[in-house]
Amino acid sequence: MLRLTSPFSLSFSSISNPNLPSSFPRPSLYLPNSTSQTSSLRINTLPPLSSSISSSVNQTTPISQMEDSLLLYSRAYWVSESVIAWNIDVQNGVCYLLSSKNASLSISNSQIQGEDLKIKLQEDKAGLSANVVEKFPHIRGYRTFNLPSGLDVKSLLKSQLAVAIYDSDEKCRNCTGLQLPGVLDELFSYNGPLGALFSEEAVSLYLWAPTAQSVCAYIYKHPSGDDPIEIVPLEEEHGVWRTKGPTSWEGCYYVYEVCVYHPSTSRVEKCYANDPYARGLSSDGRRTFLLNLDSDELKPDGWDNLANEKPILHSFSDISIYELHIRDFSANDLSVLPEFRGGYLAFTLPDSTGVLHLKKLSSAGITHVHLLPTFHFAGVDDQKENWRNVDTSILESFPPDSDQQQALITAVQNFDGYNWGYNPVLWGVPKGSYASIPNGPNRTIEFRKMVQALNHIGLRVVLDTVYNHLQGNGPFDEHSVLDKIVPGYYLRRNTDGFIENSTCMNNTASEHFMVERLILDDLVHWAVNYKIDGFRFDLMGHIMKSTMLNAKNALHRLAKEKDGVDGSNIYIYGEGWDFGEVAKNGRGINASQFNLSGTQIGSFNDRIRDSMLGGSPFGNILQQGFVTGLLLQPNGHDHGTEANMKSMLAASMDQIQIGMAGNLQEFVLTNSKGEEVKGSEVLTYGGTPVAFASSPIETVNYVSAHDNETLFDIVSIKTPMDIGVAERCRINYLATSVIALSQGIPFFHSGDEILRSKSLDRDSYNSGDWFNRLDFTYNSNNWGVGLPPREKNEKSWSLIQPRLADPSFRPQRIDILATMDNFLNLLRIRYSSPLFRLRTANAIQQRVRFHNTGPSLAYGVIVMSIEDGHDGFPGLSQLDPTYSFIVVIVNASPQEVSFVSPSMQSRSLQLHPIQEMSSDDLVKSSKYEAASGCFSVPRRTTAVFVEPRKI
């Protein structure tokens, strides 16, 4: 999505619609040829089909007061071939279905005119069937109306439709349009070919558009300008429009003209759209490029053998993820050729500073690079010559707390080369702005080279998918595709018929058969044609659980022999937040955190993030947590009494420990009150259970992501003003240490390891290269480059300004290098023992223990042990050939702590060899005394002690 917020905290369920960014690319009229046919199209002056339209015109308002607007609403549902549902009391009236092929329905003086057919419906007192209620739970209780048999329903669905209640005097008492996904799914669900298919004899086109009255394909020789070389009418069979053309079409471009009734205008419109199954595009995104992905000319050397060269992955538990934006990676890297900076090919340069950095991460243990959206999205022109930029020398001339930088950046933010990309237009085409040449096949070739290069340095590739919403809607928006081809089907609508926008824009409806099919086909396309190794789902909770399970199954069925990829190694995970119209299964069982338990699909663990850092992204930014000084080093924010702070910190420690144990619902912990409780019985401040996973691979642990402030920035806000920058650097390292050494999947935002700053910007989705800069030379962390953009940060400027102005907040190169070294060591420790990567809930329950628990706990200290078995002894099996016992002690306090554990007396524990060799003198000073079982750990340090096996 256009990233307005963070991966949401538990409290997000009460938020229905985050504020939409104020600036979007201005929609323009979308024509196949801008010099022709303007007379046949009209600009839409009616209200947009959006949930922002008030429902103040309700079903009890007298019809005389709302006649002009009634047909803009679609409050009835055609749920199956013979059944219409409507929340209306017929009383003594009669219900009719009305249709008009040319959309001539109108209402005046309580009379409806313009219908071609008027069909009497019979109310069915039995109500909706169970299968309909399962598919549409939000209309349970609606009244049911049966259609007479023998109707040509398929033809009717191509018309303007309405249902109306007539009184005995033939006056219309109420009227509304219909929502059609139910009957479309029943009559037109389709599993055959879609998109462009290439053979030795022909190029064939297939388009699913069952409500269209006609479809033509405009074929062009070039990506822009000129007249079409052909205008080809398509023929329909069971809702699918198709045509066959010569092989010379390959390498050409095309646009569909779809003549269809559109509910947002109440008119039959000529809509011009790309192919939803497009695999290539023109640079302006307005024409579909006929691209044969099987062509050898599009394959880098060795491409077909890449499946055999993938980095080895024994288990999903071995995964660790590094989240990266393609442009961030190299836009400012002077070791990259200027024409490659910010694009796919920057990943193919083996000696660039960025690639050398990735090699260090890969060697230490990172297994997957998660790339922010790489499909065709709005907000960035693919043609670089159209970009506007600000002279960096001017930006560098301003003070670190000036508001001038953000003013200059925001003036061009919709015209530069930067956006995160959570505003999808077409899911199946690589974004052209990251290619050296956006027209033609280059974006495909270069994307493949990027994947291949990353695989060759030991990194698998995850794509960030955004199937929960689309940028455009309606018949004229240049970013609208699906809503032009089957209006009202792909986008989820509320009970008034307006598009749901709880994800910020144009929510999609995966509960509809062909929406799910498009999602599954797209995933398989990326896996097979680009050999992608994993998928992260944006706002996954807005997708149905069944869709996610079908997606996992479709991917895991892929095999090297027939598909060229091993689908069993493709990992999927996402944001399982439960809010908006889908909350509490409002549209069916959705893919939210708790619903996904047992599926082997990962969900982001916001609990461990909030407990570590304090509060949530929607609370007071000064609220402290476990690592940011709660109770132990207050920042002046009112956290209540000392007793209250102790209670908060103890609760946070319980939540973190559950997270470190894989966030398992069944994991048993002695909590801070001395009670034995399961993970599902440990509650957050919102009263929701902390644990949602039944397997460690179902939880993705993190403390920072692209959303919200970077880890270093949030630490700099939440910690007291008077502590030194060295202490903030240690807190940054401490937070990553908990993630790195927890059971489950660790996830790191790019730059966590080098103190990355965005100058305290909480939402940098459109803040340009200036605020999003990464420096892999380690000379700067980008702190203090001006006040962050006003739109999302102004309310916090009073907190931000004094911090940016204070030079003591800025880390030096020595701080960045020390943090990087500690981070790499944490990864090496994780991969030094399989005990940090246990594969089952049972193994974690048997082997993982927490020792500083109960009412006498030492605040700010977490002590975790992991036990292995011994060959030849009953009980636990042996997993680790090197270590038989591991102890992890996390000291978040600003002083050294000593912790005595009688249960760990007389063990042969020693500081992990990697930490013994560390350049961090504090880590190296950690000690264990066998006689007393006493551990001593310096301030803000995570120490790992191991018991080597006796040979």
Rounded to an integer, what's the Rg over CA atoms? 29 Å
Helix content estimate: 10-25%
Summed over residues and divided by their number, the pLDDT gives a mean of 92
Low-confidence stretches: 1-57
Distance between the termini: 55 Å
What's the number of extended β-strand segments?
A: 39
Number of helices: 23
**What coarse outline follows from CA principal-axis ratios?**
globular
| Percentage of residues in DSSP E strands | 15-25%
Largest sheet: 8 strands, mixed
Strand order, sheet with most strands: 6-3-9-10-1-2-8-7
What class, by secondary structure content?
Answer: alpha+beta
Describe this structure in words.
The protein has 951 residues and is an alpha+beta fold. The relative contact order is 0.09. The strands form nine sheets. The chain has an eight-stranded mixed sheet, covered by helices on one side.
